[in-house]
Specification:
CATH topology of the largest domain: MetI-like fold
Number of strands: 0
Radius of gyration: 24 Å
Strand content: under 5%
Helix content: over 70%
CATH superfamily of the largest domain: MetI-like
CATH architecture of the largest domain: Orthogonal Bundle
Number of domains: 2
Order of helices and strands: HHHHHHHHHHHHH
Largest sheet: none
Structural class: mainly alpha
Shape: globular
CATH class of the largest domain: Mainly Alpha
């Protein structure tokens, strides 16, 4: 009970500090939606009226107080650009981003586990060298560069995949609608997986090599236990704690982890929304997405700690 209360208070404290820093940083940025820099046609009278409507004519501390009070009721404010509730704007774009990033995150960890363990088990062989070189290429490859290469080769030249968007001009109905969406998401998901596995494969390979030096691995092999059983009973249980920790820290990427790719592929998701909001200085939307990402980060840490405690009861919280 004390541990849950301590975690809850820690989450509240961190959310308060993140909200304070984010609010101050956003309002300290040059130019603003209400300042006339982005729209020279706005008259001073119009700017004054808009500031009064959105409460921007108040001192900064009062603005922060009102904003946090609305956050407590899950009210993220009204978008400057669309005039709609931020929650409504986010609700329209959140599902596709969650699906795309969730699939990419799951594939990244599954592929990384398989390649990392295989490279360690085949240490200093051709398989190990090929996996290591591919991981280094993945680690060094910019996502936008790979996306443009795939678009030019597979979409423009060969016509195998659509260039951008989520649906064809005439999307089919029923299950074909979702298959059409998945077809449009193949390239961005592939780019996310290829870019994400690089560092993770090298990390898992390094951890597995250390595990393979343990005495219980030598004893298991000396007893003639098959490699598949060694992986399942001895390697994976020791790999899970650090991998789960990384998985918990990756949860914020479910919302804002595809900003560049959504802009390149023309996918109307949270990443593109964040980019457009930053360009137009749409403060309520920017702060809303930042707070959602911060909340996911904190919750991800708590979930990872709970799973680690379940896997190893001797871990102290």
């Amino acid at each position: 009970m004390k541990s849950l209360l301590r975690s809850f208070l820690y989450t509240l404290l961190m959310l308060f500090l993140i909200s304070l820093i984010s609010f101050g940083a956003i309002h300290a940025a040059p130019n603003s939606f209400m300042g006339g820099e982005l729209n020279p046609n706005m008259t001073p009278e119009t700017i004054a009226q808009l500031k009064a409507i959105y409460g921007l004519d108040k001192p900064l501390l009062l603005q922060y107080r009102d904003w946090t009070a609305n956050l407590a009721h899950l009210n993220f404010g009204i978008s400057f650009v669309s005039g709609e509730q931020v929650s409504t704007v986010v609700q329209d774009r959140l599902p596709v981003t969650l699906w795309m990033n969730s699939i990419a995150l799951l594939l990244t960890f599954v592929v990384s586990l398989w390649l990392g363990i295989r490279a360690a088990l085949r240490y200093e062989t051709s398989a190990d060298r090929i996996i290591t070189q591919l991981s280094l290429i993945s680690f060094a490859m910019p996502s936008y560069y790979l996306a443009l290469i795939l678009m030019m080769s597979l979409s423009v030249m060969l016509g195998w995949f659509p260039i951008n968007g989520l649906h064809s001009l005439e999307p089919p109905s029923g299950i074909g609608y979702y298959l059409d969406m998945l077809w449009h998401l193949c390239l961005p998901i592939f780019v996310m997986v290829f870019i994400g596995v690089g560092s993770l494969v090298l990390y898992i390979r390094s951890l597995t090599l250390e595990i393979l030096k343990s005495d219980y691995i030598y004893f298991a092999r000396a007893r003639g236990i098959r490699e598949s059983i060694v992986i399942r009973r001895y390697i994976l249980p020791n790999l899970l704690p650090p991998v789960i920790t990384i998985l918990g820290l990756s949860l914020p990427g479910l919302i804002g982890g595809s900003v560049i790719l959504e802009s390149i592929f023309g996918i109307e998701g949270m990443g593109q929304l964040f980019y457009l909001s930053a360009m137009s200085r749409d403060y309520p939307v920017i702060l809303g997405i930042l707070m959602m990402s911060a909340f996911l980060t904190l919750i991800g840490n708590q979930i990872a700690d709970a799973i680690l405690l379940k896997l190893n009861p001797f871990v102290k919280r």
